Amino acid sequence: MKKQALIFVFLLGFALLNYPILLLYNIPVSIGGIPASFFFIFLWLLILTGLTFIAVKKFNKSSDAE
Amino acid sequence: MSKILIVDDEPNILLSLDFLFKKEGYEVYIGRNGEEALALVQEHEPNLVLLDIMMPLVDGYEVCAFIKKEYPKIKVVFLTAKGKAKDREKGLSLGADLYLTKPFSTKEIVSKVKELVN
Amino acid sequence: MLSRDWIIAATFCYLGLLIALAWYTEREAAKGKSRSAHPWVYALSLAVYCTAWTYFGSVGRASTNGLEFLTIYIGPCLIAPLWWIVLRKTIRISKALKITSIADFISSRYGKSAHLGILVSIFCILGILPYISIQIKGIENSLEVLNLTEFSQSGTDFWNDTAFYVALGLAGFTIFFGTRNLDATLRHEGLVMAVTFESVFKLLAFLAIGIFITFFLFDGFGDLFTQASAAGLDRLFVLNGDAVSDWFWLGLLSMIAVMFLPRQFHMAVIENTSEKHIDTAMWLFPLYLILINVFVLPIALAGLLLFPSGTVNPDTFLLAIPMSKNAHGLALLGYLGGFAAATSMIIVSTISLSTMLSNNLIMPILVSNRRLQDQLRTQLPQILVWTRRSIILGIILLAYFYFRKLGNNATLVSTGLISFVAVAQLAPSLLGGIYWKSGSKLGAILGLWTGILLWFFTLILPILVQNGYWNPSVLSEGLFGISWLKPTSLFGMQGMSSITHSFFFSVFFNTLIYAGVSLLANRTSREHNQALIFVDIFKLGDNPDRSTIWRGQATQEALQNLLETFLGKKKAQKAMEKFFQSKGIPANERRWADPELVNYSQRLLSGHIGSASARIMIESIVNEEEISMDEVMGIVRETQELKNLNLELKAKSKALQKATENLQEANEALKISDMLKDEFISTVTHEMKTPITSIRAFSEILQDESIREEDKKRFLQIIIDETDRMTRLIDQVLDLERFDSGRQKLNFERVFLSEILESSLSSMAQVFSEKNIRLIPSLKLPESPLFLDEDRIKQVILNLLSNAAKFAKSEVRLSAYESEDQVIVEVVDDGPGIPEEDQPFVFDKFFQAKNQTSKKPIGSGLGLAISRKIAEYHGGRLGLESKKGKTRFWMEIPLETSIKVPQNQPIHE
């Protein structure tokens, strides 16, 4: 399960931070004064890191299985 | 006069014994199997029974056991081809007075019977 | 103003702190307290990924290309979750096989190939050297910014250059903490702690400057971005078209680099103490990257806003901005942070490269020469250590001079990316190596060569042209004037950046050749073994020694001597003891080492001198016979044959068991037959006694002369009859015995069955008429004669008829007819029938029905037993069916003339 969860995080990140989804926020728009691309890239990275953290903690607690 | 019952399923043996004991002056009855023997014992209460063992329907052991239970005074002599010690012991333990094996000596059998009857 | 003395003092203070920390950690480790075996230490030590390039180069890149610089960090963040799968497997393999570097890893995977080890090592040196040089450049640049500009491009001699002495200092530090132990798989505790400290330090320094610029010089992110936007810098907020294409490829490239750069491989794999630490690294490392990158764009924008004239190199904004605002302390901190980033990279890279070179290049050369090996044998460990030390020094000096000769024109980032692409060439054979069993040595070598050549052609050649070392026509005309062989646009490919272009084509063809050749190539058994170990590492358990097929002989003594040379007497003995203890057998018992011990020793040695050299050393004392794939197949076949033999044996023993059972059964049967025989004999004697008794009795009676004449006659007749009876009985017993033992001979002749039947009928007619029983024949027989023993068949029929006569009430039918391929003769009477429970025994010897009453039927009790035997001797059967009022005996005799006469039939049926 841990494996699957981690692969899921990888695929999610790969989709969010690559063409074509990238084009959705790679636009000259600012959010609270911060450029959309800058904002979203770091947001996604934080979310992905958070998800990895959760996956590791959760599945390590439930079992140490591969 | 003493009464003798002879029981055997071999006609020729019956014939020879019948002849022998009649000649010696006994009142002889003949039984060809165990069933007939039982009937004749009850009917005539002989002094002595000469008994074969291997007979159809009711065998000699059973006849002997019956006689010794119901008529303890009747002497029983087994006269059989079964010569094994085991058979002899079984016969005597049932109360038989004598256990003789075939083929027999006519003189011997006559004298033994005479002894027992008197 | 920062004085030169201050800066130098701070630098050496920092180095001193580093040394103290490393020293302390090593001391503690020697006491058994491992300070660096902590998941956070592991995760943070991986941040050696962030070098001077990150520290200075990213800002420079961001000032021209905006967010594009981030791809190099997004890739590692994305791939991090997969480390649990890929990195863990790599670690497991490396620990099991005592791998010392990435070159060792690849060499080991492809049959411990010295060739591959050398190729990868040299290529890594070439690929990483520029990368190390830009670290020195980073330090140099920062010193320049801090107004220590004694180095002005060309004028100064290197001995007057501060950077040169810094480089020497670094070499000293690395040598001291990196080559203390000969065993390259042993962790460098102090070093890891130092690197971790540097990671934390550089992050804090970067964050401090970032916060200072963003929140003190400007009013937060919003303000900074708004000002930049107003200044027309908003083009940097959006990735342009080309960048989007690069985005993907650079992301992919950095995913590979973060694992396979020699220093990353060293920190992540070789220095790993527990696979569990990956758990922490998977989120902490990305978090680190996010933090260190969040201020990159703001700093770049601030630099562009503050120095609009373009006179300041954007790569130095990080220091230039605090300097310009007179925040000297902060600038010094930034300088030290950059110094930390550069030094950690240099230290780890040089250690990994020196191990790689000494174990995969120098050692194999030294030990593969038998004479050299014999001469140097005892000094090899010393040679090894000093080789590593000189390599470290050599690399750092080479990097320094590379930077002075070539590295000035290129930016930090572009030089770094060239190294990334170089390292990416290792990916196909490495990833293929751990997930694809068929990946072969030849495929790896050819794939690597392809990748290296393309890398050189597409990235290095243009640099050489730039520096005037190569004819520029190759760029415009293509190689040999072939237009689709232009280094920057292979096959006329346009629209890719040079890095992406090179990365794509080199790795593409590398992979293609690797996979293609692997599919076609034959592999040696050793390659096969290693492939199995690598790919199936999780299935192997903890003993890779046992899984290899190895053939050869080595004395235990020679092995021990070899180990003692490299490990020292004490350690070698300990290792041996450990081995025998784990095997549960006493040491020194056998003269010849078993394969497992040889593999174990080789593995131990691998940790010191690399797998290829270890193999060569072991081979020098082992009379190993090279095993080809065919031979392995042979071994497998032999095993198979053994297995088959085993199966056969099992079958045999099963058969034997069955035979025993049969024998037992036969014995039982014999016992029964013995019993039967006893019974038979006692029955026979009993049956014989009966006529004898009569004969004797009448004989004695006849001795008496007074008997009447008619009685005499009668008695004599009885005696004669009984004698006949006895004769008959004896005849029949003998008959039966002959039939039973199979000694009975029949006189087969061609006879008409009907004749036999008719003569039987006539001889029985008398008996039937006496008993007033009707005898009804019904004969429908073939014209042709049968092959029979006339007398015996007649005996059977007479027996059946006389039996029927004994029991019949009023009639007996004798029928004979043909049915299919046999003749059936049957005798049916209307007597009382034979009770069902008696039917199976009717054909037994001396069976006489119980219900025969007073009159005993004439007969010995052997008639039917003999009759059945006769029928069987004719190949037929005798049987009966009976119910009240109808008893049918039948005999089947086959029409077939070929009659098999049973031989030696057992007595029992």
TrEMBL record, chain A:
Domain of life: Bacteria
Keyword set includes Transmembrane: yes
Transmembrane segments: 7-27, 33-56
Record's keyword terms, sorted: Membrane, Transmembrane, Transmembrane helix
Name of this chain's protein: DUF3311 domain-containing protein
Organism of origin: Algoriphagus taiwanensis
TrEMBL record, chain B:
Tagged with keyword Phosphoprotein: yes
PTM-bearing positions, type 4-aspartylphosphate: D52
Keywords: Phosphoprotein
Database matches in Pfam families: Response_reg
InterPro entries: Bact_response_regulator (IPR050595), CheY-like_superfamily (IPR011006), Sig_transdc_resp-reg_receiver (IPR001789)
Response regulatory domain span: 3-117
The keyword Hydrolase belongs to this UniProt entry's keyword annotation: no
Matches recorded under PANTHER family: RESPONSE REGULATORY DOMAIN-CONTAINING PROTEIN, STRESS RESPONSE REGULATOR PROTEIN 1
Protein name: Response regulatory domain-containing protein
Natural source organism: Algoriphagus taiwanensis
From TrEMBL, chain C:
The organism's place on the tree of life at top rank: Bacteria
Catalyzed reactions: ATP + protein L-histidine = ADP + protein N-phospho-L-histidine
Domain Histidine kinase: 683-897
Gene3D superfamilies: 1.10.287.130, Histidine kinase-like ATPase, C-terminal domain, Sodium/glucose cotransporter
Annotated signal peptide: none
Transmembrane segments: 6-25, 37-57, 69-87, 116-134, 162-179, 191-218, 244-262, 283-307, 332-362, 383-403, 415-436, 443-465, 499-521
UniProt similarity note: Belongs to the sodium:solute symporter (SSF) (TC 2.A.21) family.
Name of the molecule in the record: histidine kinase
Lineage summary: Bacteria, Pseudomonadati, Bacteroidota, Cytophagia, Cytophagales
